[in-house]
Automatic annotation (TrEMBL):
Residues 12-185 form the 3-hydroxyacyl-CoA dehydrogenase NAD binding domain. One of its GO terms (molecular function) is NAD+ binding. Pfam families: 3HCDH, 3HCDH_N. Residues 190-242 form the 3-hydroxyacyl-CoA dehydrogenase C-terminal domain. It comes from Pseudomonas fluorescens. The keyword Transcription does not apply. This is L-carnitine dehydrogenase. InterPro entries: 3-OHacyl-CoA_DH_NAD-bd, 3HC_DH_C, 6-PGluconate_DH-like_C_sf, 6PGD_dom2, NAD(P)-bd_dom_sf. GO terms for biological process: fatty acid metabolic process.
Length: 322
């Protein structure tokens, strides 16, 4: 199915859940020029959604609104039957409680049209579990974003090995809205990005617990170091450039692995205990977060938009990204 035919098929997207991720998806789809129905059982979410769009709009406008895009094309409802009536593509973004999601997917497949594709924003659950009690399980898959979806373009498709046709259509649809799609060959808890983030977070906890540096310093070491390269190319691409002779890359990697075994990562016996979590969270709140979230949100939005614009310019000038 071509991108044009996918775009024609999916003119309306239903976002189930109006939390941070659901609202972020609604903003993304709105920017892409689609009609968006947002469902949440809590009526007060409507006002919160309006505030979310107000905060996000400068970044959405900087990234560029599709022709016809506008807030007038976003509708909120507390009635799930109303939301799913005639649904074409559904993006579920409810709290990470597996039992509740399984029940919700059963309900959604009871209500939604039989040809509606239903993607979950789950941060780590397996699609095979989400579809375990649902009708038409072959149309259910994972479409995992990073927060916020309107700003960070990546979408990880998982569970497509059991739903290849739906996964192929979903991939083309996501691409048509401006997403960068990665597809897992088979399912794994946490997918790709979150597993890498979890490994990094474990190292942060380890260094913090050992008194190596404070959390702000560790953040700066990442944002001003490897993160700059990772914005352009992934770790494996970066490591490949670390050897002068590409033919000797296997030997170079062997050296990296020896460094890992030699103490470049946390001791396998290291565990994150409740007191460490409490101390870490308190330091983040009183240092990095001392002024609250707003200045950090503004910095994130402005910074990511400028990085995306710079990368787009590089692509226009012929640079290729892995």
């Amino acid at each position: 199915m071509s991108a044009q035919s996918v775009t024609k098929r999916f003119q309306t997207v239903v976002c189930i859940g109006a939390g941070n991720i659901g609202a972020g998806w609604a903003a993304h789809y709105m920017r892409a020029g689609l009609d968006v129905v947002v469902y949440d059982p809590v009526a007060a979410r409507s006002e919160w959604l309006d505030e979310y769009f107000k905060r996000a709009m400068p970044a959405l406008e900087a990234l560029g609104l599709a022709p016809g895009a506008g807030l007038n094309r976003v509708r909120f409802t507390t009635n799930i039957e109303d939301a799913l009536a005639g649904a074409q593509f559904v993006q579920e973004s409810t709290p990470e409680v597996l039992e509740d999601k399984i029940k919700l997917f059963k309900l959604m497949t009871d209500i939604a049209p039989a040809d509606a594709i239903i993607a979950s924003s789950s941060a780590g659950f397996l699609a095979k579990d989400l579809r375990s009690c649902a009708k038409g399980p072959e149309r259910i898959l994972i479409g995992h974003p990073f927060n916020p979806p309107f700003l960070v373009p990546i979408v990880e498709i998982a569970g497509g090995d059991a739903a290849p046709e739906s996964a192929a259509v979903a991939a083309e649809f996501y691409k048509s809205t401006g997403c960068e799609v990665v597809e897992l060959k088979r399912e794994i808890n946490g997918y790709i990005g979150n597993r890498i983030q979890a490994a990094v977070l474990r190292e942060i906890f380890y260094m913090y617990s050992e008194g190596i540096a404070d959390v702000a310093t560790i953040d700066r070491a990442i944002s001003s170091g490897p993160a700059l390269r990772w914005a352009v190319m992934g770790p494996s691409s970066t490591f490949f450039l670390g050897t002068q002779n590409p033919d000797m890359y296997a030997d170079f990697v062997n050296g990296l692995v020896e460094e890992i075994h030699g103490g470049f990562v946390a001791d396998p016996a290291f565990s994150i205990d409740p007191q460490l979590i409490k101390d870490y969270a308190a330091e983040v709140r009183t240092t990095i977060g001392v002024d609250g979230q707003k200045p950090l949100l503004d910095l994130r939005n402005t910074g990511v938009v400028k990085i995306r614009q710079a990368l787009d310019l590089m692509r226009e000038n012929g640079a290729k990204f892995l």
